[in-house]
Amino acid sequence: MGVTGPPGPVMDRDEVDRALARLGAEHEAIETSLLALQDHAGRRLLEGAELTGVTKERWASAEASITLLWAYFDAYTAALRGAREIRSRRRWSSREDLVELTELLRGESVTVAGSLAGASANAPTLHGAGKLSQSFSLTTLVDRMNELYASSLDMVVAADAVWSALPARIDLLAAELQRTRRLAHSVGVRPGEHPAGDDLERITHTLTALREQVVSDPLAYWTPTQGSSAPGGGRPDTTVYDREARALDDVRREIDAVLTVRQDAEQRLVRLRDVLSRADRTLAEARAARGEVLAKIAAIEVPVVSGPPTVLQEQLATAAEYRRHAQWHRLSPLLESLEQKAEDELLRARESLGAVTQPLAVRAELRGRLDAYKAKVARHGLAEDPFLIERYDAARRMLWSAPCDLRVAEQAVLRFQQAAAELLSAPRVPEQGGPQDHRGEQ
After folding, report:
1. pTM of the full predicted structure?
2. Burial of 297 by CB count in 10 Å (0-12 exposed, 13-18 middle, 19+ buried)?
3. Sign of the dihedral through C-alpha 80, 82, 86, 91
4. Phi first, then psi: what are they for 23, rounded to 5°?
5. How many CA atoms lie within 13 A of 390 on its CB side?
6. What is the pLDDT of residues 389-434, one digit of tens each?
């Protein structure tokens, strides 16, 4: 094997055949890849879309790269065809044929017009873009085509991945948003009237803008995977979509709460009326009891009983009005507030009744204590004792007279108790000839 010019040693027939086979396989693989790129759905969408932003810039560069890629491929095809023709001239190639084939297969034998070679601003290592033409070896040309193909495919796959993922998800969320808006409208949740209505309005605007941006600039929503060399290595950026989806979930929960209010509103209003009615009746009872206490108990201060608060009745009427007009979003917080206030009002009324009737309870307790001690002394045979009868009658007159001075009556009861206790604890001496003597003899 002899030595020639720049390409190096002259190739023999076997080396030529192996090189042609390898270059032919690479040609077939590159052609298949180019045709697949040509038919790629993402590329067709990019060609027909009105692009903006980073996608518009990168697609302009990718289009130039694809144009250059086909120019390189055509030049590569022509060079390979020429080499095959030389090899097919004769079965046993002459030295002149081998020298020519060596120049074609190893030398910078492929010439590309300078305007085409500089067509892509981002094409790798494109030097001398101002030259009329550039020459490449077939191996260098394959490397250039692989680089251009990888960068173009990466851009196409990334845009297609975003278009395949986000618009459909946005449309599904928008459909759910519309259903939620109709449901919200049916329960009175509207913009400017309820925070959830304002949220729905904001989510609608955000999703509309997001879809427009995703369609026109998909690469703005693409996050490449660090360290990945595979075309389209990365994932769609769904940050904005995920945030709005969570916001819509919050709104749905709020509307569900309003719907629950709509379903339970009548029962809750009935319970509220009942609680407030019981509070009113309790206050009326307390006022009547206060009059009775003032008439029957002397020398004691009885607390004043206030009337029912009219504001609660007004709010209850407002709640009923909200229900009649299906203003559930306003009814919900009002019912919650009213339920707590109604329970507080009932508790206040009961406390007022207890405070007013306390003197009557004290009098009843003193009467019960007096009667209990009377029964006790009767069981011990002292019911006819003149001293006890006097003390008992004095206490009874005070407790059963009106008005009753509780402090004086309590002292009278205590005196009766003390007298009874003294007699019960004293030793018993039977009277001579009295009835007790006869009972003792029996």
Report:
1. 0.57
2. buried
3. positive
4. -65, -35
5. 4
6. 888 888 888 888 888 888 888 898 899 888 888 887 766 545 444 4
